[in-house]
Hints:
There is one protein chain. It is globular, with a radius of gyration of 17 Å. The N terminus is likely disordered. The relative contact order is 0.20. It has one domain. By secondary structure, it is α/β, with parallel strands linked by helices.
Amino acid sequence: MSALAEALPPGPLFARAACGGLAMRLNGTRAVLRASAAMWLPVSKTLCAGDLHFEKGSSYAARGQMLPPYDTHETLSRLEAEAEALDPKTIVLLGDSFHDGGGEARMDPEAAARIVRLAYGRSLVWIVGNHDEEGPRFLPGDVVDQVSVETLTLTHEPLPGHKPGEVAGHLHPCARVSAFGRAVRSRCFATDGERMVLPAFGAFTGGLSLRDKAFGGLFTRPPTAGVIGKNRVHCVDWEQLI
């Protein structure tokens, strides 16, 4: 059994979902935190994912740092798998979907065609972020600053203060937990039951410790981490984070 699998069992915020994720009420809205790093809203059939950072590899390559150029297709494969499993009516991408403003132009035609197929028969919403302030110009979907779904407001960058219902990305939360004498670090969801910061969905994205000061002031009480393991999301209390 992995170290992450030995994390505390789900607390009062959560129940184990059949998919291996965690089911919860987020500001009154039913939500499932999935091991893909996406959040599923079953009532409105909305799939949410943040910080895909398409074309990060090609952005680094243009500056002389050669990364394998497969990140966009890998990220798309994971998003397609979620769409196949859940059949969402709406897919909302919470900003920084492209790593920079030129990412859409660098995207190869097959990747663009995959996004067109993903959008067919459903709504695709691109929330703009600090890396892609204009959003895509030629791909299908609506480009917005934020969108309301049920009791939630989906946006890119979390705002300080009490913001019940806010769901954001931007900070790429991750957690370190200790089990069996060793530390394990993984992407995580961060929530106090009223608001949520999603982990980065993209293949080449890094993470910021949930204990970093950047998360200070966002939650009304110490947040719980939904730590992503292999095919499961594990509930980890604030006190267990290292």
